[in-house]
Design brief:
The complex is a heterodimer.
Chain A (H helix, E strand, L loop, with lengths): L2 E5 L2 E3 L5 E8 L8 E6 L5 E7 L6 E3 L7 E6 L4 E6 L8 E7 L6 E2 L3 E5 L2
Chain B lengths: L3 E4 L2 E4 L5 E7 L7 E6 L6 E5 L3 E2 L7 E6 L2 E6 L8 E7 L6 E2 L3 E5 L1
Parallel strand pairs in B: 2-11
Antiparallel strand pairs in B: 1-3, 3-8, 4-5, 4-9, 5-6, 7-8, 9-10, 9-11
Classes of the chains: A mainly beta, B mainly beta.
């Protein structure tokens, strides 16, 4: 069974930085693309970023490109999201998600709140 | 970017009703479309992939059709457990994009 456990969320001031982590189990991590998807309070889903299985290809939403950086460590079955220059619009529940095409397994999310 | 337009935004139906949600893409996405169900306080759950393929474990009352720019998700006989918000998502190209969501309520 796929299990994805996010961590690293919290309260951060505007302009600040945060690093999210996701520990994966139950599947062959090194063969799997991984994603981050976020959901602002009371709003819909927004795809944030994707990293290929090898880590050689990364993709970002326009809203975060240049401020967020996705990474992975296949030796630790972990994916991360480094977030910089955070603004109030980045306040959301951030989900770690498995899948290259359809997003077939989701973690429970970690909440990021950007506020002064 | 490919825009995904979903409608209606909300629908209310009775148990046993047939329910249809529509998702329209601003450009052709062939069949690269997924549908998700999200219940309050929970993570989304994949229902349908590649427009019409039922994910393992999903009840057969859910079905998906369409290709190109027009897609539908149908619940053949609405059940109380189907009260949720449903999202479509294209994965034809980056950036991946979701529809705005359809909230399904049980009368």
């Amino acid at each position: 069974e796929v299990h994805l456990l996010e961590s690293g969320g919290g309260l951060v001031e505007p302009g600040g930085s945060l690093r999210l982590s996701c520990e994966a189990s139950g599947f062959t991590f090194s063969s799997s693309a991984m994603n981050w998807v976020r959901q602002a309070p009371g709003k819909g889903l927004e795809w944030v970023s994707t990293i290929s299985a090898s880590g050689g290809a990364t993709f970002y939403a326009d809203s975060v490109r240049g401020r967020f950086s996705i990474g992975r460590d296949n030796s630790k079955n972990a994916v991360s999201l480094h977030m910089y220059s955070l603004g109030e619009d980045d306040t959301a529940l951030y989900y770690c998600v498995h899948g290259w095409n359809a997003l077939d397994s989701w973690g429970q999310g970690t909440l990021v709140t950007v506020s002064s | 970017d490919i825009q995904m337009t979903q409608f209606p935004s909300t629908l209310s139906a009775s148990v046993g009703d047939r329910v249809t949600i529509t998702c329209r893409a601003s450009l052709s996405i062939e069949s690269w479309l997924a549908w998700y169900q999200q219940k309050p306080g929970k993570a989304p759950n994949l229902l349908i992939y590649k427009a019409s393929n039922l994910e393992s474990g999903v009840p057969s009352r859910f079905s998906g059709t369409g290709s190109g720019t027009e897609f539908t998700l149908t619940i053949s006989s609405l059940q109380p457990d189907d009260s949720a918000t449903y999202y479509c998502q294209q994965y034809n190209s980056y950036p991946r994009t979701f529809g705005q969501g359809t909230r399904v309520e049980i009368k």
